[in-house]
């Protein structure tokens, strides 16, 4: 961020009609308060500066609008996340974590100055209509995060097969209360799913192969075929147990199986076919045929 550069800018680039009716209740150091004319090297740097200010002022932000010309961004409007002008189509009773809008006007407007390749704040509204709660700001989604120490502890406990709930309670006990943590239990569980439990394709194929062999040892009528890629990741897989084989022989219809495997982590095609819709004559009653039908998506 560079304050001095603004002295060399054209006055037409600035909007000094910014509303500053009252100061935020939180006491924020002057150097962290956004002002008209401040310049930044990148748009990300400008967004980070306003995000840090919002944390000090006890609110969170979101991008309202971004104007582009081709692939290049021309300007961006960042507002308070509780502006509340837009109504969600989802009922509040269906939302797990509803946030009430209070028409907070706090915002900044940033645009690019091509002649000097800098981003400038051309409009600032510092009105903060919701109360200042510095002891709760860490619980706002935008400001939550896991430190390196917390991440290392989570990985260690996962290797020791300690349940996530126990791990979280240990953090609470060490901090003294839930409010003194910069994250919630859901953040920790999401990290475990996204990072700790995300095994490689090769390890996944190896463990899946071991599982199929164990099933074969328990049931001699269990059949499987597992084909691997050149890098030892799964190419395609097929397996069927004794009950399924008997059911197929009795009903005389097709056997359906998913054409993708572990799509949350990576995408694998069986015989290069995309998922399709198929019918089998089971489970669901049919008036014309007099026997049930089941419909499955694969």
Q: Note poorly predicted spans.
A: 4-24, 261-298
Encode the helix/strand succession as letters.
Answer: EHEEEEHHHHEEHEE
The largest β sheet comes out as: 5 strands, antiparallel
Could you report the average pLDDT, rounded to the nearest whole number? 73
Number of strands: 9
Structural class: alpha+beta
Count of individual domains: 3
Note the gap between the termini.
53 Å
Radius of gyration: 28 Å
Strand order of the largest sheet: 1-5-4-3-2
Which shape, going by the Cα principal axes? elongated
Tell me the helix content: 25-40%
Number of helices: 6
Which band does the percent of strand residues land in?
Answer: 15-25%
Can you summarize this structure?
The chain is α+β, with helices and mostly antiparallel strands and 298 residues long. Helix content is 26%, strand content 21%. It has a 5-stranded antiparallel β-sheet with strand order 1-5-4-3-2, covered by helices on one side. It has a two-stranded antiparallel sheet with strand order 6-7.
What is this structure's SSE topology?
Blueprint: E1 39-40, H1 43-56, E2 61-69, E3 72-80, E4 107-113, E5 118-125, H2 148-159, H3 164-175, H4 185-196, H5 201-218, E6 223-228, E7 234-240, H6 242-251, E8 277-285, E9 292-297
Antiparallel strand pairs: 1-5, 2-3, 3-4, 4-5, 6-7, 8-9
